[in-house]
Amino acid sequence: MAEKVIRVDDIDGSEAGDVAKRDFEVLGRTFTIDLSEDNHKRLHETLTALGPFLDNAVEVKPAGKGRKAGRTAKIKGYTNGDVREWALNEGVEVSERGKISDEVYAAFIEAHPDAKPDA
């Protein structure tokens, strides 16, 4: 018994005899798609036009989602808000937002020995 496979162009739905599985690479990742010769040519032209933009662009990494594995806590049992509030009350310069310096954490721990993280 014979079987007939009909490939359908993933872009325009055509079933022309020249539709074939086409592999292409973008940013080091390989993709595959069923395309006719005409759509394969369009894909190739598009990737060629896109090349200079990709070559000159810088990848933007997504923002982190919480702590990264292996990072140790700066303090234990207190929040950064607690550290900032203490610093302001003590006349220690600290930003309203953003990173708190290691020196401020060290001074907070000195004033609150129970905040020292486990080593």
Automatic annotation (TrEMBL):
Ranges for domain Lsr2 DNA-binding come to 78-111
Instruction: Describe the location of the Lsr2 dimerization domain by residue ranges.
Output: 1-48
Show the coiled coil region(s). Answer: none
Supply the name of the protein. Answer: Lsr2 family protein
**Highest taxon, organism lineage:** Bacteria
Please provide the record's keywords in A-Z order: DNA-binding
- Which Pfam families did the record assign? Lsr2, Lsr2_DNA-bd
